Amino acid sequence: MLTALTRTDAAPEMFAYCAAEFPRRPGVADALARNLTCPIEVLRPVVRYLSVSAVQDLFEDLDRLSTSPALVAALVASTVINAEQRSQLLDLQREELEAMESFVEAAEATEPDRAKRETLLQKLSRMRVVERVQLAIKGNRDERLLLIRDPCRVVQRAVLQSPQLTDREVESFAGMASLGDEALRMIAGNRKYRKNYTITRALMFNPKTPLEVTLHMLPNVAAQDLKMLVTNKNIPDTLRTAANRLQRQRASQRE
Question: pTM score, two decimals?
Answer without folding.
Answer: 0.83
